[in-house]
């Protein structure tokens, strides 16, 4: 059932830049709100592990990658636009549940 | 002079034959170079060759970052050129990274930068100690990223970063309308810009290269034809920038003893070029064959380019006038290469000449006749090609003889091929036929011979089964004066 769907997310950052910190803060908040108990976020700091950038085709920082559910989606930026992030991650906002 | 320039301005040899020559030693070391041109003009290939040659010839590892083609495709595409990318990668001499940006799976929200590309590049460069980098074609990012303003500033930052990193970088760019590149990359690359062009003129395709800009360095400003073949790109400088080839004082025989005597030192200078002009049936080929024979007799290799006769026909005809070249063909001292002038473009002809000369290493080269080539190119093109050919022959100290068919019995200068070569040739021999006393009289005149005094008279000659025999002109002194006045 759709409710059992889990989300595996990966956040690529490059050091603790303001954009990266903000992105992490944003995605944690959205997940807590919408995906409580059904998500995992892996944070990859490319300054420490630069070799990991190629595998997920990372070019922008920060980049959020939705590994599961498939297909892979990427959201680049500090994730400040909640609506776009939720749509991008295929997480229905609570309000849309009512609609349908 | 060259060394002095290198000191002032360090350069990185490109490993692309001819390009180092016109750039005075290569690309600016540690700086970005923009290579632009329309689709299919050879940008990627040039960049790849720069990397591969850097690795194989200059011990400079390289990183190739592709924004368009996958690594697999790239490897396959250059395999035909003998570049084995997989092996270079396995040896840790080359790193390849394909940056794929699939717009459909990307959402943009909020602020970001392109640090990911920096990190990938940095990682690849440091992993193998790369000195050369290629970004092919970074403009592809424009179709994948919405925020063009950010992209521009990031590209600018990237180029500066590469400069600080001290790597010599080729950035390729697709040609835009009215600008060198579609997204104006030339604004960010200020040091060196190379433009490639692919044109079809009279159904013959020609590739050309031009250095649009090279800050802080002298460079050739012409458009240089270049070729892509199984050895990659080679640029053919129209002329080398300098006229500084070594010359020999040694003398070689023309192959005709009585003709030798007309020159003060009994022959041509070794490594010189000779032009033989005349209308149809004036024994130009016979003179050329004698020259070939004399070289063979000295045990020196001869390469004979025949644009009108097949090898067999040439051998048979020459046998009729007492020149037996067959044994030398058998012993490989003489190679006759026949081809139709219209078979291919001038550049391709030149390339074939270059290659044969390169592999066969002859001491003497004969082109019979160069005037055939005129039929396939425009005046300036033919001239440029011949200058290049002569240049190459001189640098390699190869004796050259060109024959040229003229149609104007009075004023040879009107003829294109003659006009193109006569000023370049060291020696110019004119042969002609004349009707006198109801007979045909052959005559020969040395128009010029650089660095050597020579007979100023017109000499009659006959051709028998024993060959050419010269004799003093018996008649028509005024005819001589006519020619001398020219």
Give a short overview.
The complex is a heterodimer of chains A (100) and B (486). Chain A is α+β, with helices and mostly antiparallel strands. Chain A contains four helices and four strands, in the order βαβαββαα.
Task: Summarize the topology.
The complex is a heterodimer of chains A (100) and B (486).
Chain A: E1 7-13, H1 18-34, E2 39-45, H2 52-55, E3 63-68, E4 73-76, H3 82-89, H4 94-99
Parallel strand pairs in A: 1-2
Antiparallel strand pairs in A: 1-3, 3-4
Chain B: H1 2-8, E1 11-12, H2 19-22, E2 27-28, E3 32-37, H3 43-58, E4 62-66, H4 71-79, H5 85-90, E5 94-98, E6 106-108, H6 115-128, E7 132-136, H7 141-144, H8 148-165, E8 168-174, E9 192-201, E10 204-214, E11 223-229, E12 232-235, E13 251-252, H9 257-260, E14 268-269, E15 273-278, H10 284-297, E16 302-306, H11 311-320, H12 326-330, E17 334-338, H13 346-360, E18 364-368, H14 371-374, H15 379-395, E19 399-405, H16 416-422, E20 427-436, E21 439-449, E22 458-464, E23 467-472, H17 477-484
Parallel strand pairs in B: 3-8, 3-9, 4-5, 4-7, 7-8, 15-19, 15-20, 16-17, 16-18, 18-19
Antiparallel strand pairs in B: 1-2, 9-10, 10-11, 11-12, 13-14, 20-21, 21-22, 22-23
Helix pairs in contact in B: 13-15, 15-16
